[in-house]
């Protein structure tokens, strides 16, 4: 195969991004995300992650975990239970405050969140769907309840956690007593949360079952503003390592009407989705509300003894809370690209669909492709794949024309393709193809792993 070859030298690069319809279609077609229980007609606002979606989600989670724990000496991990003592949610304020104001149409029975309706709709009390009359608002608690124990009665009611943060707060004393941590320090957790959302839309953006990546950072009262600024800057910089376009990200500060009951200050990192700017991650200055409330409700002191000053106090908290499932969505949206490659041999427009994932999160890092299945090339390609498995997520594909196989890998976002051809048998080298540029170079087999690691380390997404 020719050295330094490109499949088409006249590549026209178009803008990144896609409509929600294209993202949903690609996810179903290529095995990223499926409707949950689809054979039974599906279940609203729930989704299953397929082979590629699972890899993408796991890679994002791993990147976040490494950034938050392994690169910080003062942050440790936790994996708390989904079901917690019901007093937890009384102390946190969720039983009292975690609700939405809902209105119903008396005619078509459609339900709306009152705070999301346009002012003219609220004034006229006319349904935006059918023109019928709207009911007065009533509060609807967003927590899912269930029963624990053999008898279903009011005393057995517990909740599926609506957030992962409370598992961290109720374990604060356990972590301090067992981990030799000293303030300032953080506790990180990734886990599922559940909210009985009435308004569920935009694919996996807002669902009833989702995953959060949260870190609660405990600081001495008076130091919270300094650490709040540190984590704002640190968390925004993280998305560059995910390969997200910085022009699609911005901060939004919560105004007085938006601040949660526990917050001193709060910022959202917002992403520009196809449906507008919406929250991706929250950074909150929570004061000492959480530990103070749990101390009050459990009847035990929850505080910290400073070993340097012998001072005892309730720490303040800086929270970073990112949506894992929303991170999957922005990774897909931000990476999606359609490139006009001119016209094919039949005169038709040739458009390449490609996901420009950062190699840190791509579901497949390296695809290994024998040029043909005969003459020992397939066996040689499998040997090379086996050599690379320990270092990278690999995929082997021997079916179809090589160009078509390249396009399949482009569409799922594989950064590197290795083609094994007849020269590989004679010279012990292979063709390494780069997804973004479509450039192809010859690389000695013995240098493959080192070359790919170098490319990942220095990776920058094309503009």
TrEMBL record:
GO biological process, one term: glycyl-tRNA aminoacylation
Reactions that this protein is recorded to catalyse: tRNA(Gly) + glycine + ATP = glycyl-tRNA(Gly) + AMP + diphosphate
Aminoacyl-transfer RNA synthetases class-II family profile domain mapped to chain residues: 21-370
Enzyme's top EC category: ligase
Its biological purpose: Catalyzes the attachment of glycine to tRNA(Gly).
Entry's family note: Belongs to the class-II aminoacyl-tRNA synthetase family.
Name of the molecule in the record: Glycine--tRNA ligase
Native source organism of the sequence: Spirochaeta isovalerica
